[in-house]
Design goal:
With 365 residues, the protein is α+β, with helices and mostly antiparallel strands. It contains nine helices and 20 strands. It has two domains: 231 residues, 3-Layer(aba) Sandwich (Rossmann fold), CATH 3.40.50; 121 residues, Beta Barrel (OB fold (Dihydrolipoamide Acetyltransferase, E2P)), CATH 2.40.50. Helices cover 24% and strands 35% of the residues.
């Protein structure tokens, strides 16, 4: 499934009696666009507007060069051909997994039999559901239902995959079971993928771009990294202070079960676990795990010490200060006490060393 090379841009306005949704954003050709916000912020409504499930939508929706909506036309749900995965999966309870998947394949008008068979086998392996084919939905766990629902949505060869809080109904154990499969989809899909959630942890693992909604309005749209560290973003605050960096594995230390990851800007981080040399990974760094010193520490247990410079003070709240720190192009966040901030006499431009206590990675093998 290919996304092509043309632009996908959406300007959406929907006015209801008690609610209004407004957004203007670009959908990336490759990667996952996360739509983030608190309950009631308009995330699901925005997804429904894209899918053609809402009436009286105004604006313009252009997907891969094709106009889905403007002042003269509005393509139907069938014409848009999106794959939509809901919170509950919505499998047909009277059909086996195999027949649920067959229903999705039958909705692919452009599929040939041999293509359908190859696609089906690939998805069965990718989502690990081949052993479930003879079961019925009531015999599946929540995570298994969602994996089957995703496969069914993809078998119709959609132009876009929309995931509406697919993990919201799962407990923490089931969430951890399904997240690796969603990460595999992230790596393999060549169609736009939009992921709605109010859970920032899910977004950190899966999304490359972020559209942040608040009370029906778009308040930020950009790359995931910028959404987390930019002064203009509502996420760069004390309550949700975290940064992500992309890098590749350059070294293994098997005796210590450590891997070394180099970022594109040349910084080196040592992370727990052994990963394949050359593997692309995402480093997730919580600001509360990033301490700051004016001098490089010696005789310390901290493995990751990086030189940088304070570039901004993003937030001050409840006795804590959120710093934006530029480390040769890699922008990180540090959350420290206001007392430490004053004691160290920090301000934009101050040269510092960051000490990173822990790193969470996406892409572990």
């Amino acid at each position: 499934m290919s996304a092509g090379n043309k632009t996908s841009r959406c300007t959406i306005r929907l006015q209801r009696a008690d609610f209004q949704v407004e957004a203007d954003f670009v959908i990336p050709k490759k990667g996952v666009l996360g739509i983030f916000g608190h309950s009631g912020s308009g995330k699901t409504t925005l997804l429904r507007c894209l899918a053609g499930l809402e009436q009286a939508v105004q604006g313009r929706i252009e997907i891969n060069g094709e106009t889905w909506l403007d002042e003269t036309r509005a393509l139907s749900v069938q014409q848009r051909n999106v794959g939509y995965v809901f919170q509950e999966g919505r499998l047909f309870p009277h059909l086996s997994v195999a027949k649920n998947l067959a229903y999705g394949a039958r909705r692919c008008l452009a599929c040939k039999d041999e293509d359908e068979s190859m696609e089906r086998e690939h998805l069965l392996e990718l989502l690990n559901i081949a052993h479930l084919l003879e079961r019925y939905p009531f015999q599946l766990s929540g995570g298994e239902k969602q994996r089957v629902a995703i496969a069914r949505a993809l078998l119709k060869k959609p132009r876009m995959l929309l995931l509406d809080e697919p993990l919201a109904s799962l407990d923490e154990q089931r969430k951890q079971e399904i997240l690796p499969y969603l990460e595999k989809l992230h790596e393999e899909l060549n169609i736009p993928m939009l992921y709605v959630s109010h859970n920032l942890t899910e977004m950190l693992r899966l999304c490359d771009y972020m559209l942040v909604m608040d009370q029906g309005r778009q308040v930020f749209n950009g790359r995931m990294h910028d959404a987390l560290v930019s002064a203009e973003s509502p996420l760069a605050r004390v309550e949700s202070a975290v940064a992500v960096l992309e890098g590749s594995v350059s070294k293994q230390e098997k005796n210590f079960e450590l891997s070394t990851v180099h970022t594109t800007n040349g910084n080196r981080f040592q992370v727990p676990g052994l990963m394949a040399i050359g593997k692309r990974v995402r480093l997730i760094m919580f600001a509360s795990d990033v301490s700051v010193t004016r001098q490089r520490a010696t005789d310390t247990s901290i493995l990751n010490i990086i030189e940088g410079r304070v570039s901004a003070v993003l937030d001050k709240k409840h006795g804590r200060v959120l710093l934006q720190i530029d480390c040769s192009g890699d922008v990180l966040l540090s959350l420290i006490s206001e007392k430490s901030f004053q004691t160290l006499q920090l301000s934009p431009g101050t040269a510092v060393f960051i000490q990173l206590k822990a790193v969470v990675t996406r892409g572990n093998e």
